[in-house]
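Sat 14:20. Reprocessing the chain from the morning session after the first attempt stalled halfway. Input below, unchanged.
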Amino acid sequence: MLIFAATVIAEKRMNYYEPQCHRPLPIRLSQISSRLRRIVLNTPLLWTNLDDKVFRSSAILDCFLQRSQNCGLEIDIRDMSESMVYVKKVLRNFDKVVVCVNRWHSLYLQIDFQSNLDMFIARVHDLCAPNLNLISIIFAIPATFWTKPLPRQYSLEGLPL
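Finished this time. C-alpha coordinates:
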Protein backbone atom coordinates (compact mmCIF):
# COMPACT_ATOMS: atom_id res chain seq x y z
CA MET A 1 0.00 0.00 0.00
CA LEU A 2 2.90 2.39 0.68
CA ILE A 3 4.07 1.97 -2.91
CA PHE A 4 0.63 3.01 -4.14
CA ALA A 5 0.51 6.01 -1.82
CA ALA A 6 3.94 7.15 -3.03
CA THR A 7 2.86 6.69 -6.64
CA VAL A 8 -0.27 8.78 -6.14
CA ILE A 9 1.76 11.58 -4.54
CA ALA A 10 4.29 11.49 -7.37
CA GLU A 11 1.45 11.54 -9.91
CA LYS A 12 0.04 14.71 -8.38
CA ARG A 13 3.43 16.42 -8.55
CA MET A 14 4.28 15.57 -12.15
CA ASN A 15 3.16 17.52 -15.15
CA TYR A 16 0.18 15.41 -16.12
CA TYR A 17 -0.70 17.46 -19.19
CA GLU A 18 1.79 15.52 -21.26
CA PRO A 19 0.12 13.41 -24.00
CA GLN A 20 1.43 10.07 -22.73
CA CYS A 21 -0.26 10.61 -19.36
CA HIS A 22 -3.88 11.07 -20.39
CA ARG A 23 -4.93 7.83 -18.73
CA PRO A 24 -5.58 8.06 -14.97
CA LEU A 25 -3.08 6.43 -12.63
CA PRO A 26 -5.23 3.53 -11.36
CA ILE A 27 -5.95 2.48 -14.94
CA ARG A 28 -2.26 2.56 -15.85
CA LEU A 29 -1.33 0.62 -12.70
CA SER A 30 -3.99 -2.00 -13.36
CA GLN A 31 -2.42 -2.82 -16.73
CA ILE A 32 1.00 -3.78 -15.37
CA SER A 33 0.21 -7.30 -14.17
CA SER A 34 -2.75 -9.43 -13.12
CA ARG A 35 -1.65 -9.34 -9.47
CA LEU A 36 -1.33 -5.57 -9.49
CA ARG A 37 -4.68 -5.34 -11.28
CA ARG A 38 -6.41 -7.28 -8.47
CA ILE A 39 -4.81 -5.01 -5.87
CA VAL A 40 -5.75 -1.82 -7.72
CA LEU A 41 -9.33 -2.94 -8.34
CA ASN A 42 -9.75 -3.79 -4.65
CA THR A 43 -8.26 -0.56 -3.27
CA PRO A 44 -11.00 2.09 -3.25
CA LEU A 45 -8.65 4.88 -2.13
CA LEU A 46 -6.81 4.69 -5.46
CA TRP A 47 -10.02 5.72 -7.24
CA THR A 48 -10.82 8.88 -5.25
CA ASN A 49 -8.81 11.51 -7.18
CA LEU A 50 -11.14 12.89 -9.86
CA ASP A 51 -8.91 15.07 -12.02
CA ASP A 52 -9.00 16.31 -15.61
CA LYS A 53 -8.08 12.89 -16.96
CA VAL A 54 -11.10 11.36 -15.25
CA PHE A 55 -13.51 14.10 -16.34
CA ARG A 56 -12.54 13.62 -20.01
CA SER A 57 -14.64 10.45 -20.21
CA SER A 58 -18.05 9.70 -18.78
CA ALA A 59 -17.23 5.96 -18.69
CA ILE A 60 -13.99 6.54 -16.75
CA LEU A 61 -15.75 8.85 -14.29
CA ASP A 62 -18.47 6.22 -13.72
CA CYS A 63 -15.75 3.65 -13.11
CA PHE A 64 -14.00 5.90 -10.56
CA LEU A 65 -17.23 6.71 -8.72
CA GLN A 66 -18.11 3.03 -8.48
CA ARG A 67 -14.65 1.73 -7.52
CA SER A 68 -14.05 4.46 -4.93
CA GLN A 69 -17.08 3.04 -3.08
CA ASN A 70 -17.89 5.37 -0.16
CA CYS A 71 -14.44 6.95 0.18
CA GLY A 72 -14.03 10.71 0.15
CA LEU A 73 -13.50 12.32 -3.25
CA GLU A 74 -10.82 14.80 -4.28
CA ILE A 75 -12.09 16.84 -7.23
CA ASP A 76 -9.35 18.60 -9.16
CA ILE A 77 -10.34 20.34 -12.40
CA ARG A 78 -7.63 22.56 -13.85
CA ASP A 79 -7.56 22.16 -17.60
CA MET A 80 -10.48 24.40 -18.54
CA SER A 81 -8.66 26.30 -21.28
CA GLU A 82 -9.72 23.93 -24.03
CA SER A 83 -12.70 24.32 -26.36
CA MET A 84 -16.24 25.01 -25.20
CA VAL A 85 -17.15 21.47 -26.31
CA TYR A 86 -14.64 20.14 -23.77
CA VAL A 87 -15.94 22.49 -21.06
CA LYS A 88 -19.51 21.29 -21.66
CA LYS A 89 -18.35 17.65 -21.43
CA VAL A 90 -16.62 18.37 -18.11
CA LEU A 91 -19.75 20.11 -16.82
CA ARG A 92 -21.96 17.15 -17.82
CA ASN A 93 -19.59 14.83 -15.99
CA PHE A 94 -19.37 17.23 -13.05
CA ASP A 95 -23.14 16.88 -12.68
CA LYS A 96 -22.55 13.18 -11.91
CA VAL A 97 -20.15 14.18 -9.13
CA VAL A 98 -22.60 16.71 -7.69
CA VAL A 99 -24.84 13.76 -6.79
CA CYS A 100 -22.00 12.51 -4.55
CA VAL A 101 -21.51 15.86 -2.76
CA ASN A 102 -21.64 14.15 0.65
CA ARG A 103 -18.37 12.37 -0.29
CA TRP A 104 -16.42 15.47 -1.34
CA HIS A 105 -13.26 16.04 0.70
CA SER A 106 -11.68 18.67 -1.53
CA LEU A 107 -12.70 20.76 -4.51
CA TYR A 108 -10.09 22.52 -6.63
CA LEU A 109 -11.20 24.45 -9.70
CA GLN A 110 -8.95 26.48 -11.94
CA ILE A 111 -11.09 28.42 -14.39
CA ASP A 112 -10.00 30.81 -17.11
CA PHE A 113 -13.25 32.49 -18.23
CA GLN A 114 -15.99 34.16 -16.21
CA SER A 115 -18.70 32.17 -17.99
CA ASN A 116 -17.04 28.86 -17.02
CA LEU A 117 -16.79 30.00 -13.42
CA ASP A 118 -20.46 31.02 -13.43
CA MET A 119 -21.46 27.58 -14.75
CA PHE A 120 -19.58 25.79 -11.93
CA ILE A 121 -20.84 28.16 -9.24
CA ALA A 122 -24.42 27.62 -10.46
CA ARG A 123 -23.99 23.88 -9.87
CA VAL A 124 -22.55 24.11 -6.34
CA HIS A 125 -23.97 27.23 -4.72
CA ASP A 126 -26.92 25.50 -3.00
CA LEU A 127 -25.16 22.26 -2.07
CA CYS A 128 -24.41 21.01 1.40
CA ALA A 129 -21.03 19.25 1.48
CA PRO A 130 -20.61 18.00 5.07
CA ASN A 131 -17.18 16.42 4.53
CA LEU A 132 -15.61 19.16 2.42
CA ASN A 133 -12.32 20.18 4.04
CA LEU A 134 -10.78 22.26 1.26
CA ILE A 135 -12.20 24.41 -1.47
CA SER A 136 -10.06 26.35 -3.90
CA ILE A 137 -11.40 28.24 -6.88
CA ILE A 138 -8.77 30.03 -8.90
CA PHE A 139 -9.72 32.39 -11.66
CA ALA A 140 -6.58 32.01 -13.78
CA ILE A 141 -6.48 34.47 -16.63
CA PRO A 142 -3.63 36.87 -17.35
CA ALA A 143 -4.36 40.47 -16.36
CA THR A 144 -3.47 41.59 -19.89
CA PHE A 145 -6.82 40.19 -21.09
CA TRP A 146 -8.88 42.49 -18.89
CA THR A 147 -10.61 45.27 -20.81
CA LYS A 148 -13.38 45.82 -18.25
CA PRO A 149 -13.66 45.59 -14.45
CA LEU A 150 -12.65 42.36 -12.76
CA PRO A 151 -15.42 39.76 -12.47
CA ARG A 152 -17.44 39.69 -9.28
CA GLN A 153 -15.88 37.96 -6.32
CA TYR A 154 -17.42 34.86 -4.85
CA SER A 155 -17.68 34.51 -1.12
CA LEU A 156 -17.95 31.30 0.85
CA GLU A 157 -19.87 33.20 3.51
CA GLY A 158 -23.34 31.75 3.85
CA LEU A 159 -22.57 28.63 1.80
CA PRO A 160 -23.61 25.43 3.58
CA LEU A 161 -20.18 23.78 3.67
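The CA atoms of residues 13 and 58 lie 25 Å apart.
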